[in-house]
Design goal:
Elements lengths: L2 E6 L5 H11 L6 E8 L2 E8 L2 H10 L6 E7 L14 E3 L3 E9 L2 H10 L11 H11 L5 H10 L3 E9 L6 E6 L4 E4 L4 E4 L11 E4 L5 E4 L4 E4 L5 E2 L4 E2 L15 H7 L1 H9 L3 E2 L2 E2 L8 H6 L3 E6 L1 H16 L5 E5 H4 L10 E7 L5 H12 L4 E6 L5 H5 L2 E4 L12 H18 L6 H22 L2 H8 L7 E6 L3 H16 L2 E6 L16 E6 L5 H12 L4 E7 L10 E6 L7 H20 L17
Parallel strand pairs: 18-19, 18-20, 20-21, 21-22, 23-24, 23-25, 25-26, 26-27
Antiparallel strand pairs: 1-4, 1-10, 2-3, 2-4, 5-6, 6-7, 7-8, 8-12, 9-10, 9-11, 11-15, 12-13, 13-14, 16-17
Bound molecules: 2-deoxy-2-amino glucitol-6-phosphate.
Function: Catalyzes the first step in hexosamine metabolism, converting fructose-6P into glucosamine-6P using glutamine as a nitrogen source.
Main location: cytoplasm
EC number: 2.6.1.16
Length: 609
């Protein structure tokens, strides 16, 4: 949600901020804007739509400055428009970019209206810039004014702030929304995500909740939430600027689908010695925590929630570990009961999903003693707030539709199944089987990727459809859910997933020739049941598209199209069957001409409620 970038340097920061915005665009792409201070004046450019619109504006009418802030927006308060685009300005003196939501903005707005402030947007952000201006009326201390102003804010924010009265200082602060400082040589930058700054630095300071930073060209002072001056460590990022680039691929999503074999190898790398999972991969105290765990509760959203659903089947079926799972946004508000000695497991690509973070905090309030996060972003909020961490190591995922993050989440969850299973009912034989299946996985996925052309041909049948049903059973039901989410997310085709056995309890009424039914049909103990469910569809004139194990025979039927998937072991098969569904959605979206990497209305990192 919304991307922030800012900088202070000897050189003109405009091209750096523009490149940063392009790299942050996955966080929001409703509008983009930039402001610099030059000769004690604010120069601002804003444009509706993507960063390329802002770029064109800057080419036509350039601005330059040694200090600046910029923003790409995902609208929450106020529609996407130039007026609502950031940076916002108060009386030509203070300008602000904001990520997050100010919950008491209405109350602050009416107070400020009474004090004569004018509003030019419908955003919650505008109250921040007025509040800071107001504080600066009674002090010349820029940081002090920001401290006073943010003390009045309720909600979540990451802010970049400039003041014409203090043209050599960039102030940055965060509470509930991420913000990093990029440390260059004789220059500093700020951003919502390290990816924005990789072309200029690989050294980062991760601000903590409540931190306020006063950034000069050669000096940096950070105040913590209790107003103490603190020193935060500088960390070297292992990421390269190229890792977040599209390369030869037409879309990030396709690149990320194809990266899965490598990403999975990375996820497994170094976590086994002599084919034995090393539990300290989860953290040095993991064995003790696992010893004392009697049940697992998984909290996540979206695709990450689907990964958790698969894990619940695995944990209970393979390891006999009691496991429950809940969508984070529901858990946080329903006052649930937590069983004693429950390990709370959060799953998140970004590590910044507001609902998941809040659900973890809620679980802690309810007495959860230990938490584990499965996450793709080091130093993210979930990583910092969890006792144990298992990184997915998928590398930067830029496409809004999650692909490699999901399959690597499943791999790490299988590692959890092994670790917990040792304490419950996973036999040594099964542990060895799961381990060898995991190591065979990259090769299996390579084989599925070779079906890309066939899947592309299959996708042609969808481009004119408005609805689709996805069916699966057991661990493949969440895979069907994930397939449906991918399709609706990037092609805007309405898609629903059902456990195949549930079809006759209602959704069968929807079946006709215009409702394609995509079925995930691996060769497992539920196959015969699934075949009966497919018959139910076929008998009613429904069009079936079946992803089926290559070893199975199929009788010709004009209503049924079959795509044969390389034979795969039962336990690991949900990971393999995910890939053709990703490719299917991708090709449908390309045919429909939608914006694959930045689908309408969505953003990658959902840092608001
Ligand atoms: C998946 O394609 C989505 N973009 C979305 O459902 C995502 O998985 C969800 O917002 C959770 O994000 P997280 O993994 O970063 O917590």
């Amino acid at each position: 949600m919304c991307g922030i970038v800012g900088g202070i340097a000897q050189r003109n920061v405009v091209p750096i901020l523009l490149e940063g915005l392009k790299r942050l665009e996955y966080r929001g792409y409703d509008s983009a804007g930039m402001a610099v201070i030059h000769n004690h004046e604010i120069y601002r450019k804003r444009e509706l739509g993507k960063v390329k619109g802002l770029e064109a504006l800057l080419q036509a009418d350039p601005i330059s400055g040694h200090i600046g802030i910029a923003h790409t927006r995902w609208a929450t308060h106020g529609k996407p428009s130039t007026q609502n685009a950031h940076p916002h300005i108060c009386r030509n003196k203070v300008t602000v970019v904001h990520n997050g939501i100010i919950e008491n903005h209405e109350q602050l707005r009416s107070q400020q209206l009474e004090r004569g402030y004018e509003f030019t947007s419908q955003t919650d952000t505008e109250v921040i810039v007025h509040q800071i201006y107001d504080a600066l009326e009674s002090t010349n201390d820029f940081v002090g004014a920001v401290k006073q102003a943010v003390a009045k804010l309720e909600g979540a924010y990451a802010l970049g702030i400039l003041s014409t009265g203090h043209p050599d200082t960039l102030v940055a602060c965060r509470k509930g929304s991420p913000l990093v400082i990029g440390v260059g040589i004789g220059e500093y930058f700020i951003a919502s995500d390290v990816a924005a700054l990789l072309p200029v630095t690989q050294r980062f300071i991760f601000l903590e909740d409540g931190d306020i930073a006063a950034i000069g060209i050669n000096d940096l002072v950070i105040y913590d939430k209790d107003d103490n001056i603190v020193s935060r460590p500088i960390k070297d990022s292992q990421l390269t600027a190229e890792a977040a680039e599209k390369g030869e691929y037409r879309h990030y999503m396709l690149k990320e689908i194809y990266e899965q074999p490598f990403a999975i190898s990375q996820t497994l790398e170094g976590r086994f010695i002599n084919n034995r999972l090393q539990e300290n991969a989860f953290g040095f105290n993991a064995p003790d925590i696992f010893d004392n765990t009697k049940a697992i509760l998984i909290l996540a959203c979206g695709t990450s929630y689907h990964a958790g659903l698969v894990a619940r089947y695995w944990l209970e079926e393979l390891a006999r570990v009691p496991c429950s799972i809940e969508v984070a946004s529901e858990f946080r508000y329903r006052n649930p009961v937590l069983a004693p000695d429950t390990l709370v497991v959060t799953i998140s690509q970004s590590g910044e999903t507001a609902d998941t973070l809040a659900a973890l905090q809620e679980a802690k309030k309810l007495g959860a003693k230990h938490s584990l996060t499965i996450c793709n972003v080091p130093e993210s909020s979930l990583v910092r707030e969890s006792d144990l961490v298992l990184m997915t190591r998928a590398g930067p995922e830029i496409g809004v539709a999650s692909t490699k993050a999901f399959t690597t989440q499943l791999v790490t969850l299988m590692l959890l199944v092994i670790a917990m299973g040792r304490r419950f009912q996973l036999s040594d034989i099964m542990e060895a089987k799961l381990t060898s299946e995991l190591f065979a996985l990259p090769g299996k996925i390579e084989k599925v990727l070779r079906l890309d052309n066939e899947i592309k041909v299959l996708s042609e049948q969808f481009a004119d459809k408005e609805h689709a049903l996805f069916l699966g059973r057991g661990t493949h039901y969440p895979i069907a859910m994930e397939g449906a989410l991918k399709l609706k997310e990037i092609s805007y085709i309405h898609a629903e997933a059902y456990p195949a056995g549930e079809l006759k309890h209602g959704p069968l009424a929807l079946i006709d020739a215009d409702m394609p039914v995509i079925t995930v049909a691996p060769n497992n103990s539920l196959l015969e049941k699934l075949k009966s469910n497919m018959q139910e569809v076929s008998a009613r004139g429904g069009q079936l598209i079946v992803f089926m194990d290559e070893t199975l025979s199929s009788s010709p039927d004009s209503n049924v199209q079959i795509l044969k998937i390389p034979q795969v072991d039962n336990e690991i098969s949900p990971i393999v069957y995910t890939v053709p569904l990703q490719l299917l959605s991708y090709h449908v979206a390309v045919l429909k001409g939608t914006d694959v990497d930045q689908p309408r209305n969505l953003a990658k990192s959902v840092t608001v409620e």
